[in-house]
């Protein structure tokens, strides 16, 4: 898909200026010593390959041995458990589907923290609840290791081409060390603040994205019913205060833009089921912090209902189709 | 307030290119013959003044005689009723608070249509239900006159400085004639399609605007609760897929931007009560066309509840304050 | 369908006690003089038949002549226009699909008010916007006639068996006169207050009904997912504070109750499209009175979305099916 | 407050008939051997007292020693930790504020499971996430103990008078044993199914209750605005399909009923903040099971917003006041 995050180079400079401290720790940053990688799924696999391409020796593991074959052929060393990886590498990246997997991989019986070396840098790129990130950070700290959350934006395409965006939370003085590795896999690495703020930034962005997308779909549908030409309406919105990413970059109405999922039967892109998952995280986070999020909450319900009605695999901009009169499809 | 609509000059050229037909009718466009103006409220008054500034003799009326004094001193001729105005001018602009007023001024006992001349051009700049615009157009057509809807974007400031945006619906061959007058009062005049589409465009934009604003307020509030710096979060959103006008141009969180109502205790700007009115129009329109607008509908309810809780007079970005924990204010 | 309204006889006595005034006007209530009936659709037809059964001579009309045949065979006199009916009968009942029809039938070129006799009683049983009822009442008053709104609860079955419920708004001193006729067609006639309150009561009830139904559907679905037996859950709710008409009388989950649409593939009952229409009226009414109705508004959107997704003809309890996981159906 | 759950005796018989198996285990049910009680807050304190009243020797602990004084004076033995209690009693009841407390009390360093005896019966009356109940049950089973969830309905008053309702989840063959103790503290004990279904039943009921309450408040407010008398409207709803517990037993409009919080400035009753907590559990549970709950979700957001706007301590029926026009209060 087209990356959901687009950073301009100019702006990037400012982000980088956040980081002025110098990294001094036992990990040698200059030499390309081995890097651990745990979780070789659709995203983890191409990410690990990019580390290899950049010359890093990779030591990897996955709960499904077959996921490791491709990487092994590229020279990666495959071990049995996260603990084994932690025993051999002092920089480890994890890329897992959900919070329980992260908890298991870090704190389980064969988890990283069983054998982690003092001073190790542990970077979790999974998208999970920020409170779990904080728990992992506390547990890592007890073992003398550093944990950072660094969820990604961008799909398999961006993972393959090394164009992911990483939103990073954790101790600011460790950011440079994390950046060295993350730059191999992404084109933008943003420092967000303390542990958990990487997750927070991603969750917040995706919640607002969902709201904007459903809002755009409703608005375009209403305008069309009222006799407006869809392309003209999109132009008016995009020059006005209704403008948003979903209206000007990823318009959900077929025929308005090219190169977006709405131009391709809502195939590809960012699946409704993934959006529902992220909105679930936003909802849980909002509930736990007692924050009212009325539109975010309704957006979650709409995407959840869409999953129940057969839209799980379509791009999340298919909400336009979901809301339209059936005869009109 | 800063205009809610911002048009770039470059883009404008394309809008203008929509209009290639030549205007041929009995109305003399070259000469500056008198123009009727009905409705001299906060908006109508400065609009009519701008017509005078551009050299047009103005014949006006208002239900409140005192509203006419200022214009009279500038040389406008004040008559008693809309019918009287229609008897003297073949180009008339109306600027009224709501649908019932428009119906009365056009079709009432002393309404425009009682004495309208054949071939007259009637331009209504009120923000009303598009179905009422269509009714008025039909009624005008029966009398041999042309009706166009041309609601504005931009507040009293833009009306005074002649920088309004007009969204125009009606017969395309009449657009040039309308433009001649509207250009005196606005910096952007956009042709939207058949009668009612001017209203439709405005209603659609403001509905998406409201959704984006509440969404931004929720998202910023959630992010802050999760430990993100508000300015940093706004930057991240604005570089990402969560970006919208409310996040990058009119951020509702105090301290994030300057020169917006959130930097000034939510004074000025676009009042919550006005937004609630526009969302009410959107809701009625959606109901009547059987169009599902779940987020637009909830946005309407939230602004309506805010009006009930003391926010009626504050800028609509005060929804951020409404959703925050009271202690935190 | 099972009547949506169920009145107990005991309670009914109290309603009737609202009416203690004696009816004195030119209309002879004792004699069974002719009654006008306008609108012979699915509901109007059986209603008019019940008037005939009770010995009233009926003078009727309908925009579709074929709708009148059956009634004509039963002895009703069929005329061409509402004005003709008003010229012959001083008690008239109207049963029409929506507000514009009511406006036309009363105030149109061949409308009732063109030839209405002074002192006539005009009873409108259509379900429309209360503000239109008020307009009609004002127009009738100018002609010396009395208008009352008396929308019904109960479907075609109740209309046929004479078991409708009427909610009546209008001058209290006319209620007895209205009751005489309405009792022929319904088993419950409730006086609600001034003109428009009959509509208000119906709209309010159906809005709360929709909220309760969707809420019950969500709750049952959630409970089932959490491992509760549906019948047991219904019992627990019905003995507790979650109890409502939709949970204890019209449960939307197949298998929980017998004799309700959920036991019959959601056939029969009260169609989703009719509920969406009533919720649209509630929404318009709330918008026009600036009343926040967040759940009513969302319920409207959900039923509107269901209409767009193929549920228009199913009973409104099919929202349970709409919200369920597709595979589970 | 009036108990939110009201069970009729007649119906109760049927519940009891669910339980036909005979309890055979090492715990002596006939003799009144000591019972452990952990968590002596506002609810736990009067509950433990009722056990003492019924002749059970109680062994208790609480994280706040001062909470134990009153019970100690009544003869209870106070120990330091949950583990100590488990070491001495083979029937234990826990009553704690939230999931993390339950996890700590059961599985913490000094938790029950550290010293629990084989065959012990552990009953948790806290209101928590059903998934946590399941986790605790699994952990208890590993130690040879039985865990049941038994959240209560009814407030401090019902706890004091021994009139609570318990919704019980767990192995059916253990229900009789649980009942023996719960009957000392409550007037209704309902078996709901496997572990977690007690929580599920409570969460479901309270979600539907919240939806019904907000719906009733909206509907009453709308009806009043439309000119209906509140008492009359309540009567109409209660005889019709809009009927629900909030309209007929706990009406939120001042003046409609006596003896409810709306008659007493919304003091007492079930606090908005507690309802928001239960709706948060419902939301988390729905999110985790991927169940769409649009109205439940919006109800959560409304109660959450009310907490942010100063309604945290008022009864949850104060949503009527929250939605009304301020001037009208």
UniProtKB/TrEMBL annotation, chains A, B, C, D:
Functional pathway: Amino-acid degradation; L-valine degradation
Originating gene: hibadhb
Pfam family, one: NAD_binding_11
Domain of life: Eukaryota
Reaction equations catalysed: 3-hydroxy-2-methylpropanoate + NAD(+) = 2-methyl-3-oxopropanoate + NADH + H(+)
Record-given protein name: 3-hydroxyisobutyrate dehydrogenase
Record-linked Gene3D superfamilies: N-(1-d-carboxylethyl)-l-norvaline Dehydrogenase, domain 2, NAD(P)-binding Rossmann-like Domain
Span of domain 3-hydroxyisobutyrate dehydrogenase-like NAD-binding: 196-322
Keywords, alphabetical: Branched-chain amino acid catabolism, Mitochondrion, NAD, Oxidoreductase, Transit peptide
Coiled coil: none
Assigned GO CC terms: mitochondrion
EC number(s) given by UniProt: 1.1.1.31
Keyword Acetylation tagged: no
GO MF, one example: NADP binding
InterPro entries: 3-OH-isobutyrate_DH-rel_CS, 6-PGluconate_DH-like_C_sf, 6PGD_dom2, 6PGDH_NADP-bd, HIBADH, HIBADH-like_NADP-bd, HIBADH-related, NAD(P)-bd_dom_sf
Domain 6-phosphogluconate dehydrogenase NADP-binding: 34-193
Major location (coarse): mitochondrion
Subcellular location: Mitochondrion
Enzyme class: oxidoreductase
Entry's family note: Belongs to the HIBADH-related family. 3-hydroxyisobutyrate dehydrogenase subfamily.
Organism expressing this protein natively: Chanos chanos (Milkfish)
Catalytic residues identified in the record: 202
One BP term from GO: L-valine catabolic process
